[in-house]
Amino acid sequence: MKTACHNFARPISRRDALRTSAAGFGYLALAGMCADAKAKQAAPTGPLAPKSTHFPAKAKRVIFLFMHGGPSQMDLFDPKPELNARHGEKLPFDLPGLIRPDRLGKLFGVKWNFKRRGESGNWVSELMPHLAKQTDKLCFLKGLHTEGEAHGQAVLRYHTGQANFIRPSIGSWMSYGLGTENQNLPSFITIDYPMMHGGVRNYSNVFLPAAHQGTQIRVRGERASIRHLQNDEMSLGEQRDQLGVIQGLSRLHRERVGRDDQLDGVIESFELAYRMQSEAPQVMDLSGESKATRELYGVDEKPTDAFGRQCLMARRLSEAGVRFVQVSSGYHWDHHGSIDKNLPESCAKTDKPVAGLLADLESRGLLDETLVVWGGEFGRTPVAQIDRGNAGRDHNPHGFTIFMAGGGVKPGVSHGQTDDFGYLAVDGKVHIHDLHATIMHLMGINHKELTYRYAGRDFRLTDVYGRVVKDIIA
C-alpha cells in the first residue's frame, strides 16, 4: 500500500498514474465493486433508488416555490372589507405573541382591487393578473399560522419544521423517503437559493445520509450550472478509471472501519456526479425551448426574466424525474415600508412565471402528478408600520395565505380564513407542521412513520405534531 501511494506523487503522466494505481490496488477487482452507470440506471440499489410509498401517492414530485420575506395576504388573496372600512382606526383587540407594538400604527387598508376569478370565484388581487387566470387550478390555504416573528426562525420552520434546532429540510426528507425517478440526476435540487436566513440549512440533510443533501444550482443565461460537475482535463473513460480506484479504496476503508454515513455519501456523490455529466447538461440548457414557452414564463422580458428562467428550469428538472425542486424568488417580499411601490414590483417579477409554470405543467400532462406549493415564511400585519416616512406592514406569523396546485389537491378551493382584519387564523387553521404532513401524504408518505434514528431517538419532519388537511385532498 505504501508503494502504491508513493506512485501517486511521482511526476509521471496521468494515464501512467492511473494504470500504476489501478495495478497496485488490484483495479480489476475494485472495478467490479463500482457498478457501471447503465447497470445502476437499470437496477438502482443506492440510497437514491426509488422506494415504495406507504400508500398510493397522488403526486410523484414537488415544486416548492418560496416567496422569501413574507407576502401580504390581505393585499393579494385575502380581501378584508372591514379593514378598508376602518382604515386609520386602532386595531380593536390586543396584539398576540411578541409583535412589537412600538412599530405598529393604525389599521392600514388595501388600495388594490379584488375580483372573483374563474369558475371557482376565488378572490385574487389586481396585482396578480396572470395567476388570476389560473385560479381554478389553485387550492388556497388561508388559515396558515406558525411560530417565529423573525425571518430566521420562520424560514427555518417553513423548510425544516423547526425554528430553533438544525434539522433536515423537507426536500431531504422526501429524498430519504422516496429516492428519485432518475438515477442520473439528484433527487433534491434547490435553484438560486439565497444564503441569508438559514442559508444551506434550508436545503440540508443534517443527520440524514449525505446523499439526500440538496444540490444547489444557479441559473444564469441559457444554462444552469453545478459547481465542479465537468472535468475538462480528463475524458469520461479516464474519469471512469479514476473513479474506480477512488471508490474501491473508499469501500476497502469502509470494510475496515465499519459503517460511515458520510463516507457512503461521498461514494454515492462521486458516482452520481459521473452519471450526471451525461444528462444534466442537456436538462439544464434552456436554449432549446420554443419562443412560445419562453414567452409563457416571461423569459427575455423585464422584470420576469430571472424568475421566469428559474421556474422554467424547475419544470425541466421535474419533467426529467427530480423528486423535489426548490425555487426561491429572492428576498424582496419584506415590505416594512413603501408597500405601495414595492409590493407591485415583487408581484410583477413572479406573477407571470408562476402562472406560466402551472399552464406549462398542465399542457404537458405533468400537473396531476406534480405538487406545486407557493408561499412565504409568514404574512403581514393589517396595521401600518411607518418606515422612513412610508407605510408598510410588519411580520405576521399568526394568519397568512399560501396556495397549492396539482398533485392531488382540490382545484379552485379556498380553505380556512383569518379574522375580519386578516390578522389571526380563526377557521380551518393549518400549522406549518400540518402543511408538511399534508405534502408528505400527497406523496404517499405517512409523516408519522418516516423516521430516522439519531442521537438515541427517532426523528421525523413533523416532530411530534402534524395532521393531514384532508379537506383539500381530491
From TrEMBL:
Pfam families, A to Z: DUF1501 (PF07394)
Transmembrane segments: none
SUPFAM superfamilies per record: Alkaline phosphatase-like
Protein's name according to its UniProt entry: Sulfatase
Species this protein is from: Stratiformator vulcanicus
Higher taxonomy: Bacteria, Pseudomonadati, Planctomycetota, Planctomycetia, Planctomycetales
